[in-house]
Amino acid sequence: MTRDEIRDWLKTGDESRLEELWLRADEVRRRNVGDEVHLRGLLEISNCCVRSCRYCGLRVENSEVGRYRMTEEEIMACAHQAVAFGYGTVVLQAGEDYGISRDWMAGVIRRIKGETPLAVTLSLGERSDEEFAAWRDAGADRYLLRFETSNRVLYDAIHPPLPGRHSDRFALFHTLKELGFEIGSGIMIGIPGQTYDDLAADIEIFQILDFDMIGVGPFIPHPATPLGRAEGAPITLAGEQVPNSEAMTYRVMALTRMVCPRANIPATSALATLNLAQGRELGLMRGGNVLMPNLTPQQYRAQYEIYPAKACIDETAHQCRSCMAGRINAIGRTVGSGRGDSPRRKRAA
Question: Which of 252, 238, 300 is nearest to 78 (CA)?
């Protein structure tokens, strides 16, 4: 699919064409990754962050959030809970927290791999090559790092770099690939200043880099941030600003499935935040094949507030698991078994 074709799909107002897109994306999903929906147990291990991203509630300047960092024993208890729930993967996610040291994290990974059959996915921000290598050696299987937007000017406007450091996530993808990680990435939809050309370029990059997992979600700024207060938001020409809507998110999911037929694509919690009743189901019916039930202990969930009004923060891990399984079954799909490794990797092997 060319960039112009992608842009045309993003901008169309023809509902019959969109119904065609949903059906085509769902069929591509069915033929390439099947009807199983894999559950990844999400564990938000720290909300500490050194970065100043202009939309994120975890930004270092936000003094209103109570900071936490889970202990090794807390993490292990949740990992064992993931096994009991039948999950194949645990996702350890945090802000860019340098209190999570290379050696401490490596020790946690070794314990999870030694005590459980789980695949371990890390989402810990931009770290050094040495840290990535140590975590891979310890047994980590996957790394998630969203590039958010391929428009460098726009990226820099909303993600100020750390002093003396240049942020180059595409270079980090190369390092992660060389180390043998499965790589997940993704974007935000509707960033102030993001045009349809920008978004089409992002989807084209998915096609070129052929990630193992691709997560897309709407831009939802936290109110305690500059963009949440609409301070200094970039502007675009009339008619070219991408909306940060549920509907546009489905378009991007479907197009991503079309250009990356064997990628793992989650229906994200942000979709559920926009549409608690059906957001996840519609995401699964428009290209998705992964859900990420939350394992984070309840005393921490509300403090991991990247954006406001996150869905399901009052649920227990058990309630979350039961809810996800029910939603999957209700649309005629099945809960996946095993680790849910990248279908793209299986084909390459």
Answer: 300
48 is in an annotated binding site: no
Residue 65 token pair: 């959030």
State how far the Cα of 280 lies from the Cα of 107, in Å rounded to an integer.
34
Rounded to two decimals, the pTM is 0.95
Location of structure tokens 């229906």: 267
User: Which candidate, 75, 171, 64, places its Cα nearest to that of 115?
Assistant: 75
CA gap 20, 8 in Å, rounded? 14
Residues in the chain: 349
Both structure tokens of 256: 């991503």
Q: Which of 245, 246, 252 is nearest to 187 (CA)?
A: 252
How many C-alpha atoms does 236 have within 13 Å on its Cβ side? 17
Chain-centre distance for alpha carbon 69: 20
- Give the number of other Cβ atoms within 10 Å of residue 163's Cβ: 5
Residue identified by tokens 């970039």 is 234
Does the annotation list 61 as a binding residue? Answer: no
Domains of the chain: 3-348 (3.20.20.70)
Residue 103 burial by CB count (10 A; 0-12/13-18/19+): exposed, middle or buried?
exposed
Structure tokens at 119: 């695949």
For residue 188, what are the contacts with CB-CB under 8 A and spacing of at least 6? 146, 148, 149, 194, 216, 217, 218, 219, 244
Per-residue model confidence (pLDDT) at position 277: 86
Per-run averaged pLDDT (10 residues), the chain, 349 residues: 95 96 98 96 98 96 96 98 96 98 98 98 97 98 97 94 91 97 97 97 96 96 93 85 96 98 94 90 97 95 92 86 92 94 64
Q: Is 148 annotated as a binding residue?
A: yes
> What is the distance between the alpha carbons of residues 205 and 114, in angstroms, rounded to a whole number?
36
The pairing of strands 290-291 and 89-94 is unpaired
Q: Does residue 169 have a known ligand-binding role?
A: yes
Check the annotation: does 323 bind a ligand. no
